[in-house]
């Protein structure tokens, strides 16, 4: 079929409604505090400026979106996908279909109500001069599903692929949400939001003064404890809500077209597809809080999942949210089509004791920085409170640092099982990666001057998938080089001294 025989398709007209209502909501959210601030001086001036400005912005949005709808068109040819867009500057994109790696569908609450989705087509390539992805905002839900199926269908008629459900959301997984670092982060963000809103109304100083007066009856330590507890409660509620919004209705399916599809989301629905032939392994991620509860997350190690600057760079590669470790191992095995999960099929080799000493020294040095800083400032400024904070930090930080350092050493390990290279490291964020040996395209061995004295080195496996490199930290020099040769023969061999 020639390109002239394929007609162009246009975006869905409901996009105008979605964009207009979104801009109207932004105008209300921004205009209300602005109008209140102006109204303190003159109510008439506030109504005469804010309302006409909002109406003008909404009307402008309708005009721009109508023009954009007429100027944006796309079509799928047998060998490529074409997109033409632009109002002032016209842009035409053409992407080869065999380079398309992912097709993601996203729909917020308003888009879901209107029955439209945003389709993001990505090749996974990184280029300084040319973007490797483009989005269609927005098309109908049926059209989005058609584009996803058509662009990712690599299987031929004689290559039928087994399909079926690999994992489904379990409400019991919600209990792992508060154990992440998101909880305290949301608590701090809540306090910042309160102060920001108070600043809009000119009440920030009053809020701070009122809070200090309210907590004065608890004393210094009690007041700090109340602030921390309230922040944690807010973070707890926020983390639970965030987890439910992101992962409710989660499903992981293997489709006949040779793709893995993750669907999730309560308010904003997301559909992320990944070609199995691009999969090079999996990574079990166990943040400290989640690990103490016996849970783990499963991420895909695949080509084409480029590191993006937007907020979904981690979520796009997540195949399973925080779930019991046994479930994570099962899903990892199912995704890789293995009878036994490579992440737990082999007993990892321990690293030399010298690696433990390095981690303890790093931990003590990390604790020493704030302790010495507080002590020095306390002496120079003659402030006793800083001196007390210094010895309290040392008293609390040293044992915690040593415990984390010993745990980090125990978590070090590497091994081989079947066609996979397995490496584990980390304590605050422990990660176990199972990487296909055929996916390793190079090795890098690095030694600092301190490692050289202890006979240690860092061994990095280079791959075109995932983060691009996975490191085995502080492995014995001879053992590490022999392991590299055993994992991928003849790749590192010429640099080995055989005895």
Automatic annotation (TrEMBL):
The protein's name: PH domain-containing protein
Keyword Membrane included in the entry's annotation: yes
InterPro entries named in the record: UCP026631 (IPR014529), YdbS-like_PH (IPR005182)
Domain called YdbS-like PH: residue spans: 70-150, 409-483
Record-annotated membrane-spanning stretches: 16-39, 45-67, 176-198, 218-244, 362-383, 389-409
Keyword GTP-binding: no
Signal peptide location: none
One Pfam family in the UniProt entry: bPH_2
Superkingdom of origin: Bacteria
Organism: Prauserella oleivorans
Keyword annotations of the record: Membrane, Transmembrane, Transmembrane helix
């Amino acid at each position: 079929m020639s390109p002239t025989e394929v007609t162009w398709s246009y975006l869905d007209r409901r996009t105008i409604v979605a964009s207009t209502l979104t801009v109207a909501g932004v105008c209300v959210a921004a205009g209300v505090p602005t109008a209140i601030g102006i109204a303190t001086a003159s109510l008439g001036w506030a109504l005469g400026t804010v309302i006409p400005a909002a109406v003008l912005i909404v009307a402008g949005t309708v005009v721009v979106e109508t023009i954009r709808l007429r100027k944006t068109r796309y079509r799928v040819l047998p060998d490529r996908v074409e997109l033409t867009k632009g109002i002032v500057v016209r842009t035409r994109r053409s992407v080869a279909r065999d380079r398309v790696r992912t097709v993601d569908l996203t729909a917020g609450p308003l888009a879901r109500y209107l029955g439209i989705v945003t389709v993001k087509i990505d090749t996974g390539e990184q280029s300084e001069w040319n973007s490797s992805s483009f989005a269609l905002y927005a098309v109908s839900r049926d059209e989005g599903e058609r584009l996803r199926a058509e662009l990712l269908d690599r299987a031929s008629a004689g290559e039928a692929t087994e399909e079926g459900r690999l994992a489904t959301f379990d409400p019991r997984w919600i209990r792992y949400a508060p154990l992440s670092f998101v909880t305290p982060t949301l608590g701090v963000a809540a306090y910042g939001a309160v102060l920001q809103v108070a600043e809009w109304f000119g009440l920030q100083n009053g809020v701070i003064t009122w809070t200090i007066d309210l907590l004065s009856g608890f004393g210094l330590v009690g007041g700090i404890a109340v602030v921390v507890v309230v922040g944690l409660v807010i973070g707890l509620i926020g983390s639970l809500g965030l987890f439910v919004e992101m992962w409710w209705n989660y499903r992981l399916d293997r489709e006949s077209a040779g793709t893995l599809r993750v669907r999730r989301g309560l308010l904003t629905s997301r559909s992320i597809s990944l070609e199995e032939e691009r999969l090079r392994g999996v990574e079990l991620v166990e943040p400290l809080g989640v690990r103490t509860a016996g849970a783990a997350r499963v991420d895909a190690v695949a080509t084409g999942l480029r590191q993006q600057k937007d907020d979904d760079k981690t979520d796009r590669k997540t195949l399973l949210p925080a779930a019991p470790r046994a479930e994570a191992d099962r899903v990892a095995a199912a995704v890789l089509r293995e009878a036994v999960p490579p992440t737990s099929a082999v007993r990892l080799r321990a690293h030399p004791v010298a690696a433990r000493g390095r981690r303890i020294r790093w931990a003590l040095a990390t604790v020493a920085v704030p302790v010495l800083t507080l002590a020095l400032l306390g002496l120079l400024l003659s402030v006793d409170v800083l001196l007390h904070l210094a010895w309290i930090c040392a008293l609390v930080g040293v044992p915690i640092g040593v415990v984390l350092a010993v745990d980090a050493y125990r978590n070090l390990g590497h091994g081989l099982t079947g066609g996979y290279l397995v490496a584990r490291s980390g304590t605050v964020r422990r990660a176990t990666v199972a990487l296909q040996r055929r996916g390793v395209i190079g090795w890098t061995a690095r030694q600092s001057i301190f490692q050289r004295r202890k006979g240690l080195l860092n061994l990095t496996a280079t791959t075109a998938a995932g983060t691009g490199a996975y490191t085995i930290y502080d492995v014995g020099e001879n053992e590490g080089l022999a392991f590299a040769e055993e994992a991928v023969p003849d790749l590192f061999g010429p640099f080995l001294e055989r005895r």
